[in-house]
Design brief:
Elements lengths: L117 E6 L3 H6 L6 E5 L5 E8 L2 H7 L5 E6 L5 E7 L14 E5 L5 E8 L6 E6 L4 E6 L11 E6 L6 E7 L4 H6 L4 E5 L6 H19 L3
Antiparallel strand pairs: 1-2, 1-12, 2-3, 3-4, 4-5, 5-6, 6-7, 7-8, 8-9, 9-10, 10-11, 11-12
Family: Belongs to the phospholipid scramblase family.
Pfam families: Scramblase
Keywords: Calcium, Lipoprotein, Palmitate
């Protein structure tokens, strides 16, 4: 009997639904390798698409103008009519290329998110931090379940803020696609980290494209358990996120469970991977996994990426 998949708490523009399927158990694997990573045993199927749904791919560089197109065997230019061949009539009209089908309401650059239900986020190792402890801008690679890079993220702020404010620091983070185009911007203001100060809770704004707010991640006050609200552009609560009482990964993963607006039924999670004793002790590089329903609004998928970065800074960034 197949395990039921998580239902979607919110269906919006640019979202699709698909039937769940069983996924074998296992670990996330090394993000630097390409084999499938299958710890997300939530029952989602990123291979099956809704009938009629276009297959969206990350944009790739197009051939330069004037470069001859290659023939079927890729051994040379496409052959043309031979010299002296009889004229077969007027040249056929060139039909225009079909327009790319883009789901309605999907911000530019986020089309690929409509067909996946999980993401891997791998923080890059900064040698300057490892050897002398000098805090540098965090950099991340965002990959699909096959370990293929689909986005890259880089923190942007000044040296004084990074080294004086530590994990509490404010930042702007730019997320770019494989064409080096900024598709998402994350904005985190400076806030107090004390659980006893409900007036200064953490918050992060998500923009896609930059300048257009699509949602927020807001910390909910709780003296014992880390809780967050995933909100839309009008600050309406769409989902809830709740972590363990002690958010530390001592030889194991740390899971932040994602639920619907009422907080009752789980629909996904954000997981901090255990990276090994040496890596955890001597570096602050982290690996995360994000799971969500396939038919979740693509904007909320982007907001969950922002939630993952906020969790990293709050609980796993070493001062």
């Amino acid at each position: 009997m197949s395990a039921p998949g998580y239902p979607s708490p919110h269906q919006g523009p640019g979202s699709y639904s698909t039937a769940p399927y069983p996924v074998p158990h296992g670990g996330y694997g090394d993000p630097n390798h390409a084999p499938p990573l299958v710890d997300f045993h939530m029952g989602y199927n990123h291979k099956q698409l809704h009938p009629g749904q276009p297959v969206m791919h990350q944009p790739v560089p197009m051939p330069e103008y004037g470069v001859p197109q290659m023939g079927p065997g890729y051994g040379g230019p496409m052959p043309g009519p031979e010299f002296g061949a009889p004229h077969s009539g007027p040249p056929a009209a060139i039909s225009p290329a079909p327009a790319a089908v883009v789901p309605v309401g999907v911000p530019p650059g986020l089309e690929y998110l409509t067909q996946i239900d999980q993401l891997l986020i791998h923080q890059k190792v900064e040698l300057l931090e490892v050897f002398i402890g000098f805090e540098t801008n965090n950099q991340y690679e965002i990959k699909n379940s096959l370990g293929q890079k689909i986005y890259k993220a880089k923190e942007k702020n000044d040296c004084c803020t990074r080294n004086c404010c530590g994990a509490l620091r404010s930042f702007d983070m730019k997320i770019k696609d494989n064409m080096d185009r900024e598709v998402i911007r994350l904005i985190r203001p400076f806030r107090c980290a004390s659980c006893w100060c409900p007036c200064c809770l953490q918050e992060l704004e998500v923009q896609a494209p930059p300048g257009t707010t699509i949602g927020y991640v807001s910390q909910d006050w709780n003296p014992c358990v880390p809780k967050f609200s995933i909100k839309g552009a009008n600050t309406e609560t769409v989902m809830k996120l709740e972590g363990p009482c002690f958010a530390c990964n001592c030889c194991g993963d740390v899971n932040f469970e994602l639920t619907g607006e009422d907080g009752s039924k789980p629909i996904g999670r954000i997981s901090k991977q255990w990276g090994g004793l040496i890596k955890e002790v001597f570096t602050d590089t982290d690996n995360f996994g994000i799971q969500f329903p396939m038919d979740l609004d693509v904007k909320m998928k982007a907001v969950l990426m922002g939630a993952c970065f906020l969790i990293d800074f709050m609980f796993f960034e070493k001062d």
